[in-house]
Amino acid sequence: MFKLALRTLRLRKGGFLATFVAVFFGALVVSACGGLMETGIRSETPVQRLATAPIVVGGQQTLELPKEDPASLDADDKHKFENATLPERVRLDAGLADRLRAVPGVTKVVGEVSFPARIGAASALGHAWDSAVLTPYALEGTAPKPGEVVVDAGLGLAVGDTLPVAAHGSVSPFRISGIAQAPQAMRDSAVFFAPSDAERLSGHPGRFDTIGVFGGDVAAVIAAVGDAGVVATGVDRGAFEFPETGKGGENLIVLAAVSGGLSAMVMVFVVAGTLTLSTQQRQRELALLRAIGTTPRQLRRMVLGEALVVGLLAVGAAVVLGPVLGEWLFGRLAEHQVVPDVLRYEQGWVPAVVAAGASLLAVVGASFVAGRRASRIRPTEALAEAAVERRWLTPIRLVTAILCFAGGTALGIVTVAVMTGPVAASTAGPAVMLWAFGLAAISPGVTKLVASLLTWPVHALTGVNGRVALRNTRVGAVRAAGAVTPIMLAVGIATANIYLQTTQEAVSNQAYTEDLRADAVVGSAGGLDPAVLGRVRALPEVAGASEYVTSTVFVEKPFDSGQNDDGRPALGVSELTGNAVEVPSTLGHHVGDTLSLRLGDGTPVDVRVTAVVDQRPGFEKLVLPAGLLAPHTTLGLAPQLLVNAAPGVDAATLTSRLRAATAGLPVFVGDRGTLIAAHAKGNEVGAWVNYLLVGMIIAYTVISVVNTLVTATARRRREFGVQRLSGFTRGQVLRMAGVEGGLIAAIAVLLGTLVAAGAIVPFCLVVTGTPLPSGPVTIYLAVLAIAVVLSLSAILVPAWAATRGRAVDATSVGE
């Protein structure tokens, strides 16, 4: 039967090409997402600044959080923990370097610090000159003394120049004593200070970012470090140089898992629909094979063999091109700062195997379902059903639909009853797929039902052509459902995900705007000198000013059941002092309670609740003193100062006076609109990721739609010929096909809208209090227009080709 399968491939190239395309693009997307996931898991980062140090010691950037309240567990119970990534750089005590120097075999120990600096208009990272050996840099000139710097050769400066250097919130003139040449391309330009200047400007005196160790045994170094840090060798050293790759890798894993899983599920339905349609179009051929003595088992083997041959060819091409698409997607993510640009894209054999396995499993499952009906039916019944499909509902379809509808309903209830704020999207998103898959399982019946409901408007608008199109759609519901299903998936996924995103953005921007009381902002990429606060407050045009610091904290005691490994957002302001904290009322704490926290760099601190405030659900924050929070951030200083205008002072006057008061300082001044725009831009990054990945999946479904409709329409040449011989003109046949295309688009849009509503309505009820999403209606209209144009084009073009020539010639061809 496999020989017969290979022969049929040569004779039915169109149908098998459609299957090839469906499997190829599905495997391609899954393989690319697998590469992104592997990259996130590996999180390999090329070593640059620390290249020559064989052993590097860095801070422990993870924190163990209990999953259950330790107080509620018995002494014999096993404690369960999850690892949280600390968002701020964890630094090392300089005394650890002295301990490492005492390790036998260690020849050199070098501490390294990095901090943002600007030389004129150029951005760079500041370091102490004695850490240049870690790269190493070649020096032209002399090492810097206090008040001098050595600059990176890429900055284009010359020895002897004196330029203002901005670092740690202040600007001072420094003389260039030398030029440093790196042995390889570096992401960041470097400026080297004398050790005493670097310690002062880093903002963390007595602390190192990393420590490079030369010589000695790794095990001995690990023993000497103990719990004070983490030891890395080889490619793992890059994570200490660029700690942001840890969180970036986690984000990439989540993105790839969601996108790859969604793509795999869509692929199952698309491949199943394509193979089922192809088998249905060959019903007479398969019936004749049964009539001449072919056993059901042989028939199933033939269908499986055909599908496997096509599937293997498609998978082979997809796994070769998968890394190309994956690397392109990774480049777009890095370009838009979704992942760190120093992260190295890595894709081995595992994603290819997973993509191949998932795709071939979909092919085998789809071919089994497609061949099972053809093999079980009696030959005489098969010949009767070859022209008209009657039976489509099977126990598997029914059970699948019931389970999906039940799951979608359950997720909707959970979204409304349990979730708060934007986190509700975590249940609303999967609900889209459950509703879509439930409808896809019974799509022939739903297609026939909706077509019946559209009878009156179709008759009123299209006349006799519409009547024939309606009959074709209802009688050929299984065939029509093969086109309706992928369009419905595309409309549902696109509408739901885009409107979920726009609603999240609108709610986030609204919450930020409502909470924002400032009229202007003073900010600095390198942090603000604390003295700027007093200078601004002294202006008569200023009613009030506060430092503004954002970070993440982790509540250790009492146990916080609502906290996950992302911790709790924290906000630092100048109005609070000491160890005070304001907490949202949803946490259940009271004034006077003591909370044990871990700040963003892992530092433990006890704070006392001084206020309990109502905050917008989903946007709760712990408010701490800026003086407590800022020193434990990577920057070490507040990056922004929020300013309120005095009564009668307009925004233009206020910003003008602030610029005059901060002249000569490395700061920028903006109005309220600047703050709102910056916040909105931060949301745009997440939106771009969502649109990219959803767009990739939708593109796949679009290809499937074109495949299905072109294949199905091209196979109707004989049917069109019979219609023309019975009195239809070619124009009437094309108009009838156009009405069919419009019907398919209308049914798919209606079902896709229903699918999207199953996720959007519960989500919007939670975050906005209304069932309607936020976002322009043009998004929905654009999706609708794409569906209509796609359906009409994919039907009319092959129908035009199929009706060329004489009608009598068309009736003589096989089905």
From TrEMBL:
Residues 260-378, 692-796 form the ABC3 transporter permease C-terminal domain. InterPro entries: ABC3_permease_C, Macrolide_Exporter_MacB. The keyword ATP-binding does not apply. PROSITE patterns: PROKAR_LIPOPROTEIN. One of its GO terms (cellular component) is plasma membrane. It is a multi-pass membrane protein. Signal peptide: none annotated. Belongs to the ABC-4 integral membrane protein family. This is ABC transporter permease.
